[in-house]
User: Fold MarR family transcriptional regulator from Allosphingosinicella deserti.
Amino acid sequence: MTAIFDSISEPLSRRVTAGLAKIGLVLRSRAWKGAGLAGVTPTQGQALALLREAPQGMKLAALAHLLGVSAPTASETVSALVAKQLAEKTPGSDRRSLTLKLTQQGETIALRTADWPDFLGTAVETLDPSEQAAFLRALVKIIRALQENGDIPVQRMCVTCRHFRPYAHPGSPTPHHCAFVDAPFADRHLRLNCPEQEPAPAEQRDAAWTRFAAPAGA
Ligand code: SF4
Assistant:
C-alpha cells in the first residue's frame, strides 16, 4: 500500500540532496572563517592540507588534480603560499620539474586549518557506530558516482584499489579484505584517502564495485 506521504513528499533523493547542500553551505562558510583566521584562502588551506599529506613533496599537476582546479589556478595558489613562506619549491628528479613542500611555518598553519571541519565531526558523533558505518558506505557510493562523472578528482578509496577484495569473507563481521596488509575489514574501515591505494585496472575495479554495491555482498 502506498503511504500518503509518498504522494505528498518531495522525492527522497531531492531531500537528501537538499540536506547535503545545507551541510555544504555551512562547510563553505566555516572554511572561509577558518581560512581567514589563518591568513589563507580556503583553496590555499586545502592545498596546505594536501601538501601535509605528502611529506615527500608533490608536483604542481598532482596538486591541481587533487584540488580539482586548473593548472593556472593551482599555480596562483602555490605562488601565494610561497610568497607567504608557507610552501617552497624544490628541484624534482628531472631538472625541469619542481616539487612542492610545506615549510615549517606551512606545517603549523596546515595543522591549524585542519581543524575547520571539527564542528561537523561533533555532529557526526551523534550518530551511533552502525549509523556512522552506513553513512560512510553511502558516502563512498556518492563519491564514487561523482568521480565516475568527472565531477570530483579521483580519490584514493578502497573501492577503486587493486588490493580491495569486497566480501572475500561472506558472513563475517569483517567481510572485506585488503590484500596490501592481508587483513579483513568492515564497511566502517573503508578509506577515502589511503596512502597505499593503487588504482585497480578497469575490469577488476568494475567487478569489485558490482560485488561491493550488491546488498550485503549478495
Ligand atoms: S591498500 Fe588502502 S585503499 Fe587499498 S584496500 Fe587496502 S586499505 Fe583500502
Residues 158, 161, 163-164, 178, 180, 191, 194, 196-197 surround iron/sulfur cluster (CB under 6 Å). The beta strands are 58-59, 87-91, 98-102, 164-165, 176-178, 183-185.
